């Protein structure tokens, strides 16, 4: 998907302008598939913004090849997402992880939400794994997202720029940046979008579904208790990105 350089869509055209913001850190192998899935965006005027946090594997060169607007930022999803939103031109912002691919119905979901700029959309969590463990986790994530109002960043987040700015955007923290913003958005504003956001299950296969899920739950509990995100990031095993 080449970065859009077209002017704002004229009123009445029915096209929605959206900036897709992808934070990267050594994502050269996953980024092409994530961007290729966005090629289905008929009826959408989209720009691609890749925010790199210091990759050493060719991600920067790949982003340029894919036609992205490239932004360099301090490593950490919070700081990278903030930088991407600042650079983006579209009135709608779609935040997406570099190992997540949207299903073909995403333009319809974007168009459907465009008339309600006070609402925020999240996509249906899915994993690229055929195992029963993956299906069980998908059901648990859907329950958490719908009934607790806590979708995570790997489900994508579609939000109008005005609302994003009014809420203060993503905080510059190394972990839990998605939870922090979603809590400010509030459950009443969140809308479940039917299109799947298919995320790589590599980390779950590597760490074990149960162990990784329990670690994620512990991190969420610690954040809710007020433990600083930098301390949680050390437990999680990630200092940023």
In short:
By secondary structure, the chain is an alpha/beta fold. It has one domain: Alpha-Beta Complex (Spore Coat Polysaccharide Biosynthesis Protein SpsA, Chain A). The protein has helices at 31-37, 59-65, 77-87, 106-113, 132-147, 161-166, 177-185, 202-207, 209-224, 229-236, and strands at 16-24, 44-52, 69-72, 92-95, 100-102, 120-127, 157-160, 190-199.
Could you describe the 3D structure shown?
The chain has a single domain, classed as Spore Coat Polysaccharide Biosynthesis Protein SpsA, Chain A, CATH 3.90.550.10. It contains 10 helices and 8 strands. It is α/β, with parallel strands linked by helices and 241 residues long. Strand 1 (16-24), helix 1 and strand 2 (44-52) form a beta-alpha-beta unit.
Beta percentage is 15-25%
Helix content: 25-40%
CATH architecture, please?
Alpha-Beta Complex
| Average pLDDT over all residues | 91
Strand order of the largest sheet: 3-2-1-4-7
Number of strands: 8
Distance between the termini: 23 Å
Tell me which oligomeric state these chains represent: single chain
* Backbone CA Rg: 17 Å
Shape: globular
Number of domains: 1
Describe the sheet with the most strands.
Answer: 5 strands, mixed
Structural class: alpha/beta
Uncertain runs: 2-13
